[in-house]
Amino acid sequence: MTEWDIKKLRILRTLSERGTVTATAEALLMTPSAVSQQLSNLAKQLGVPLLEAQGRRVRLTDAAHLVLRHAEAVFAQLERAEAELTGYLRGEAGEVRVGAFSTAVAALVVPAVRLLRADDRPGPSVRVREAEAAEAYELLSAGDVDLALSLAAHAPTAHDPRFTLLPLLTDPLDVALPTGHRLADAPGLRLADLAAEPWIFGGSGPWSEITTAACEAAGFVPEQAHSASGWTAILAMVEAHMGVALIPRMASAERRKGVVMRVLEADLPRRHVVAAVRQGAEEGPAVARVLAALEQVSSARAKTFS
After folding, report:
1. What Å distances lie between residue 76 and 71, 80, 82, CA to CA?
2. What gap in Å lies between CA 176 and CA 246, rounded to an integer?
3. 116: which residues sit within 8 A by CB, 6+ positions away?
4. What's the pLDDT tens digit per position in 92-136?
C-alpha cells in the first residue's frame, strides 16, 4: 500500500496555494531546499512525479492535483477529529455509562441529564443502567459502567485503591402510615412508637438492612409482614393498611393520597447516597461534567429536605 505522509501532503497543498517554493518555505518556516527535499521524498513514496519545471518556477503535475483532491478529504476528516477531540477534552463529547439504583435514577440521574442538555455547551451522552446498590460496584470494577450511584452502607472502604468515592446526598427516611392510622397525627412520633406494627420492606438487600438497622437503633426488631422492594408496591400495601414502612424522601414522587408521610424528627433515620468512579477517572472531562451535574442536582434536592 502506498504510504501517505500527512506532513509532506501539507507542504504540497501549501505549494499549490502559494505558487512558489520560496513562498511555501516562508509560510511553513522552512528553507526552500527543505521544501524541495520533502516534496521529492513524497514523489518517491507515491511513485508519481508531483512537480515539473516551468521556467524558473515549478508547477504541479496532474498526478499532484489528483493526490491533493484526495488529500483534502483527509485534511477535512483530521479537522473534524481535532474538533471532536477538543470537545472531548472540554467534557463536551464522549459517553458516560452510569449505574444507579432505581430511586437515584429518577431523583438524581435524570435531572442531571436534563441539566447537561440545558447547558449552552454541548455535553457528553449519558447511558443509564439500573442496578442494585451493591451491584453497582461490581459493574464499576468490571468496566461495565464509568460511574456508579450507590449507598454509603454498601460502598467499599475509603481506602479501597480501586475507587474514588464522592458523597452526594444525605437522604432522610420518613415513615409511611395509612390514612386514618391511630398514630398518623400523633405529635413527636418516634420509631419506637411503631415497634408493634407490621412492617413492609425488602426480603434482602440494602433496603432490608437500612430498615432493620434504623429500627434496631430505636430499640426494636421490626416484624416483617410483607416483602417488597419497589416503592409503588410498598406504598400500595401501606395505603391498604397492610403495614407501615420507611420511605426515603428522595422517593417522594411515588407517594400516594391514602398514605401519610411522617418526619421522624427525634430519630432522624437517613441513608447516604454516594457516587463512585474508578480511581483517577474523576479527572476525565466527560465524567467530571456528569459528576458536577449530579452534585448540583443533589445540592438542590438537599435544600428541599431541610
Report:
1. 9, 6, 10
2. 6
3. 123, 124, 126, 289, 290, 293
4. 567 899 999 988 999 999 999 999 999 887 878 899 999 987 788
* CA angle (126 as vertex; 125, 129 as ends), nearest 5: 150
Question: How far is residue 136's CA from residue 20's CA, in Å, rounded to a whole number?
Answer: 63
DSSP state of 237: H
**Which residue shows C-alpha cell 511553513?**
28
- According to DSSP, the β-strands at 95-100 and 259-262 are unpaired
Distance CA 103, CA 229 (A): 11
* Cell (9 digits) for 296: 448540583
Amino acid identity of residue 44, one-letter, is K
Inter-residue contact 122 to 87 (CB < 8 Å): yes
Nearest to 276 by CA among 158, 148, 155: 148
Q: Which of 118, 123, 109 is nearest to 273 (CA)?
A: 109
- Which H or E run contains 304? helix 285-305
pTM of the model: 0.69
